[in-house]
Amino acid sequence: MNRLEKLRSLLQQDGYDAAVIVPGSNFLYLTGLAMNLSERVTMAVFPVFGEPFVICPQLEAEKIRRITGIQKTFAWTDEEGPQKATKAAFTENNLAGKVIACEYRTTRLLEWDLIMTSLSNQVTIKPLDTILNTMRTVKEEEEIALMCKAVICVEEALKAAQAMMKPGVTELEVAALLERTIRAFGGSGGGSVISGERGCLPHAITSNKALAEGETVILDIVAKYQGYTADITRTFAIGELPAELKKIYRIVQDAQQYSRENSKPGMTGEELDALARDKISAAGYGAYFIHRSGHGLGLDTHEEPYVVKGNHIPFEIGNVFTIEPGIYLPGLGGVRIEDDAVMVTGGVHIITGFPRDLIVLK
C-alpha cells in the first residue's frame, strides 16, 4: 500500500472525506515536492474518493504537475488572488457538507478561512495530525538510509570543528565551519555553538564569544539530506575543566549509555525518558535536567514520538528518535550528549558513531 492509499484508508476509518495539506514536511512526504509556506496559498487536497488536486499560484502549477504527478490543478494569479480558485476547487469536487481534515500545527487561519468561505461555512474541519503521525513515525528503509546520509554530514562537521576549536576561536567562527562542512558533504543545515557559562542554557544563541580555557563547548548540529534529518550533540572541553563539570560529564555520559543499552520496543515514551532521568536524579542533578530525553526524527527535526514523561504510547520497531540527556548548571555551564537511534527488534540501533568520551582540546 503506497502512502496515498494508506492516507485514504485512514481518512475513511476516521469518517473524514478529504485531507488538506499545506507546504511543509507533510506536503513533501505525500507529494515528493519540497515547498515552504508563503503568502501565496498552496493546498494539496486528497479526497477519499476521487483524484487529488492542488490549489496553487499559477507560477507554481507546472512545477507541481511535473514533480508530484498530480495533474488536476486550480491555479490563481497574483492579480486575482486565491478565492476564486479555492471556491471552484472545493465546489467542483463536491466537498460541501463534508468533513475535511487539516494539519492542526501547520494550517493557518488564512487557509482555514478560504476553505470555510469557499463552501459558505458548510463544511466541518477536523485535525489530521494523528493520521499523519501514524503514517510517519514508523520509517521506511529508504527514509532511514537518507537519515544515515545526514548523520555523515553532521559527523564530518564535528570532526572539522574538533580540529578547529581552541582558545580564542569564536563561537560564530565554529558555526560557520559547521555550515560549510555540511554543505560540502551534500547536506544543508548548521548548528549552535555554546561555550562557557552560557552552556547552562540548552537553547542559547551562538555569539561572538571566544572559546576559553576551562570551559565546555556544546555543539548541537542539525543536518538535512534530501529532506531527512540528523540531530547530534557533543560537548567538548577547552583545556582542563573544573571538577564539577568533569563530574557532570561522566554522569550524563553514563545516563546516555544506560538509555542506549536499555531502550526496547514496547516501552513508552515515559519509560524511555525515565532511563536517563532516573540515573541523573540518583546522582543528585535531577533538578538540572530540564528538558525531555529525546524526540522523534524524520522530515522534521522534532516530531512524534517524544521521549517524555506523560507519553504513554509504546515505541515501535522503525521509530527513529534522539537520546539526549543533559545537565545545566547556572554559573558554571552545561553538558549534553545526543545520538540518533532506530528502534529495532530487541533494542536500538545507534546510527551515530562520533565518540562520546570527553574530548579535551588545547
Biggest pleated sheet: 6 strands, mixed
Low-confidence spans: none
Give the CATH topology of the largest domain: Creatine Amidinohydrolase
Radius of gyration: 23 Å
Total of domains: 2
CATH superfamily of the largest domain: Creatinase/methionine aminopeptidase superfamily
**SSE series:** HEHEEHEHEHEHHHEEEHHEEEEEEEE
Terminal CA distance reads: 55 Å
Care to count the β-strands?
17
Individual helix count: 10
CATH class of the largest domain: Alpha Beta
Broad structural category: alpha/beta
Q: In what range is the share of β-strand residues?
A: 15-25%
Average pLDDT across residues? 97
Task: Describe the structure concisely.
By secondary structure, the chain is of the alpha/beta class. It has ten helices and 17 strands.
What is the secondary structure topology, with strand pairs?
Blueprint: H1 3-13, E1 18-21, H2 25-31, E2 43-47, E3 53-57, H3 58-68, E4 73-76, H4 83-92, E5 99-102, H5 109-118, E6 124-127, H6 129-136, H7 141-164, H8 171-184, E7 188-195, E8 215-225, E9 228-238, H9 243-262, H10 269-282, E10 294-296, E11 303-307, E12 320-323, E13 326-329, E14 333-336, E15 339-344, E16 347-350, E17 360-361
Parallel strand pairs: 1-5, 3-4, 5-6, 9-17
Antiparallel strand pairs: 1-2, 2-3, 7-8, 8-9, 10-11, 12-15, 13-14, 15-16
